[in-house]
Specification:
- The chain is mostly helical.
- The protein has nine helices and three strands, in the order H-H-H-H-H-H-H-H-H-E-E-E.
- The protein has two domains: 115 residues; 68 residues, no CATH class.
- A three-stranded antiparallel sheet has the order 1-2-3, with helices on one face.
- It is elongated and about 90 Å long.
Length: 216
């Protein structure tokens, strides 16, 4: 059965991506023809230039043994993990994610290759840098809202005031981009919490009192 234009386009793109996954020959354990033999489509591999041979392998598998196409891709990836690691060029997560995208373009999906536990084991080319919280400046509207919130807290009875003060502290730190953490649990009227500033985490103990503390 001839493959559709959609599948032919996907096969061409998949072959381009898989080109560096394995050698075309010369290896007794990992190579495209060995992966093909492993899943029973070895006769579709034709010796010659690697890319045309790979396109032929994928196309013929779809045309004549469609149910072996996904196992073939799996076998190629499995052997590539070994071969590329031995060359010091491990298979990257981005390559598998791109392969999954191309497979979906041909209406194929291989659960093993989309499994998060597998993908998370693969190295990534450009890991995202860890961003440290940077203190910011709240807007005038945020300051006004916080001021009003604090005034409302001051009008409450001791126990509800403690819980309201907990929320106020969280909102205050968040407004300054200080990454508040913890639940600021209440002990009496004492609030325990933490915030981050310039890469350091600071613990906070706060207690509401009506009288001035005398600290300027």
């Amino acid at each position: 059965m001839s493959i559709s234009m959609k599948e032919a386009t996907a096969v061409s793109a998949i072959a381009d991506l898989l080109y560096d996954f394995l050698p075309g020959s010369g290896n007794s354990r990992t190579a495209f023809p060995l992966a093909a033999n492993e899943v029973g489509v070895g006769e579709f591999w034709q010796q010659g230039s690697k890319l045309p041979s790979l396109v032929q392998l994928l196309t013929a598998t779809l045309e004549h043994r469609r149910n072996r196409f996904c196992p073939l891709i799996n076998a190629i990836v499995r052997q590539s993990l070994t071969w590329r690691r031995g060359r010091g060029e491990p298979l990257m997560r981005e390559e598998i994610e791109q392969l999954n995208t191309l497979l979906r373009g041909g209406s194929f999906r291989i659960p093993e290759l989309t499994d998060d536990s597998f993908l998370n084991m693969l190295p990534v080319r450009n890991p995202a840098p860890v961003q440290k919280p940077i203190a910011g400046k709240p807007t005038a509207a945020q300051v006004s809202l916080l001021s009003q919130q604090l005034l409302e807290v001051s009008k409450l009875a001791p126990q509800p005031r403690g819980y309201a003060f907990e929320k106020f502290l969280h909102d205050l730190f968040a407004a300054y981009n200080l990454a508040p953490r913890g639940s600021f649990r209440l002990t009496g009227e004492q609030i325990d919490g933490s915030f981050a500033l310039e890469g350091e985490t600071y613990l906070l103990e706060a207690k509401w009192q009506n009288e001035y503390s005398g600290i300027c």
